[in-house]
Design brief:
CATH superfamily: protein bp1543
Shape: globular
Largest sheet: 2 strands, antiparallel
Number of strands: 2
Order of helices and strands: EEHHHH
Distance between the termini: 33 Å
Structural class: alpha+beta
Number of domains: 1
Number of helices: 4
Helix content: 40-55%
CATH topology: Ribbon-helix-helix fold
Strand content: 5-15%
CATH class: Mainly Alpha
CATH architecture: Orthogonal Bundle
């Protein structure tokens, strides 16, 4: 499929720094996922770093970026914060 909006050599991913275990690292997510992550952080009264730390503790060898996406998908599908974390890294969406 040809998308005329795509610019060769460009990506829709946005890289941002986060802190895990006191160390700086970066992850790349689409802007919509960064917006969702900010919204969850605000709703839950935690920082984006704290969410990513909680997700990272559950990745079990899976990539952090994908695990964050799974968490966000579950949370936005109506799961509680804890239930969304329990779905990480490759769980099912809530029923």
């Amino acid at each position: 499929m040809n998308d005329s909006r795509r610019v060769p050599g460009r990506t829709a991913l946005v890289s941002r720094n986060i802190r895990l275990n006191g160390r700086r690292t970066s992850i790349k997510l689409e802007p919509a996922f960064w917006s969702a992550l900010g919204r969850v952080a605000e709703e839950e009264g935690v920082s984006i770093h704290e969410i990513c730390q909680s997700v990272a503790e559950r990745t079990e060898g899976y990539g952090l970026t994908g695990a964050v996406r799974v968490f966000l998908l579950c949370y936005m599908s109506g799961a509680s914060y804890v239930s969304a974390l329990e779905a990480v890294p490759v769980g099912d969406l809530p029923a």
